[in-house]
Design goal:
12 helices, alpha/beta, eight-stranded mixed beta sheet, binds S-adenosylmethionine, single chain
């Protein structure tokens, strides 16, 4: 038994109880404690599987961005449908992958033997042993980490990483942009965006994506690198790769415009369900309209814990190469 086994939180009803709002199922614990406002039903699990495929396309199948010749222990923060954790466990069968989520039931029942899914609230201080993991992954967690927790969240990740270990984070900035400036504040997509960002405050930091690099650096990570990648909301791009990415993302966008909004827009902003549905329907039409060239900015940030058998800048060509391509993506999308 290693240290992590000793920390396992027993599963009780607190974490599996759900409650229905406007035909969607939410985790009662998450709503009661202001932790997370998105549904946890099968529809949302399906959306998370779809977005995992979208990210796989975006990153050309790469699950792990930093240079990591050896992976023995990986921590996945907020495993959701467990798609990323399962892929990593299958690709690295000798690596022990541990996933944490407040809600366990979006993951499939059958998972690889080297994957261990545990229930815990990442807003609480981490109970894992120090210097334990080679890699910590945190993707799409801005809706779940309290706005005042980010500094300590980063510090906890740094503590549980072994010296030389890496943290990788991916966040979408849910502020729809237009690649040709045709979306105005009067459009439904922009209204959806500003209301979404407004509805999460002050509990969450909807601009967390923009802060990852500063927070990582402030926590003491080194070799921190950030990339901005655009995620087309539909297949509007003339570039074949971005076109296919947008086509794959369309289904995710249609689903998230409803699933992320329904609880915060009704309960926090006081909109009627009918008004939310109307706004979502209009926003979907605009997302699909190639004339708007609509996208969400995605931020990818990696950083290394100082010390250990870290890899100097010189050994990081692989990542730099990928980063350069992302820069190209941005440029191509403009044409
Ligand atoms: C948008 S999903 C992202 C899932 C996965 N990381 C991915 O990229 O597909 C967010 C997940 O984080 C979980 N979550 C939210 N807040 C959390 C918290 N404070 N502690 C642990 N898990 C949390 C939710 O239950 C949900 O499964």
């Amino acid at each position: 038994m290693d240290d992590s086994d000793l920390q396992t939180v027993p599963l009780d009803n607190t974490y599996v109880e759900t409650v229905v709002h406007h035909d969607r199922e939410f985790q009662r614990y998450a709503l009661d404690n202001g932790v997370y406002f998105a549904p946890v039903d099968e529809d949302e699990a399906e959306r998370l599987r779809i977005i995992h495929n979208v990210f796989n396309r975006m990153f050309e199948g790469r699950l792990i961005f930093p240079p990591m010749p050896q992976l023995r222990r990986v921590l996945e923060c907020g495993f959701g449908s467990a798609s990323w954790a399962i892929d990593v466990a299958e690709q690295y069968p000798t690596c022990e992958v541990i996933g944490i989520d407040i809600y366990p039931n979006m993951a499939p029942e059958i998972i690889p033997p080297n994957l261990n899914l545990q229930v815990d609230d990442l807003n609480r201080p981490s109970t894992f042993a120090s210097n334990h993991f080679d890699l910590v992954n945190s993707r799409l967690m801005a809706g779940g980490i309290h706005s005042n927790r980010w500094g300590n969240y980063m510090a906890d990740i740094l503590r549980v990483l072994r010296p030389g270990g890496w943290c990788q984070m991916v966040e979408i900035y849910f502020n729809a942009q237009s690649d040709n400036g045709t979306l105005t504040d009067n459009h439904a997509l922009r209204t959806w965006s500003s209301r979404y960002l407004q509805s999460l405050q002050p509990y969450k930091d909807p601009r967390a994506a923009l802060q990852l690099q500063n927070w990582m650096t402030d926590a003491g990570f080194v070799e921190v690198e950030r990339r901005l990648i655009i995620l087309p909301l539909s297949g509007w791009s003339s570039d074949p790769r971005d076109h296919d990415l947008g086509v794959a993302n369309r289904d995710n966008v249609h689903r998230l415009l409803a699933s992320l909004a329904i609880y915060p827009f009704t309960e926090r902003l006081g909109m009627t369900p009918a008004d939310v549905q109307l706004l979502v329907a209009q926003a979907r039409i605009e997302a699909d309209n190639p004339a708007f060239k609509a996208y969400f900015p995605v931020y990818v940030c990696i950083g290394r814990k100082p010390g250990g058998s870290g890899h100097s800048k010189g050994s990081r060509h692989h990542h730099s190469h990928r980063s350069g391509r992302n820069g190209d993506t941005r440029k191509r999308a403009r044409t």
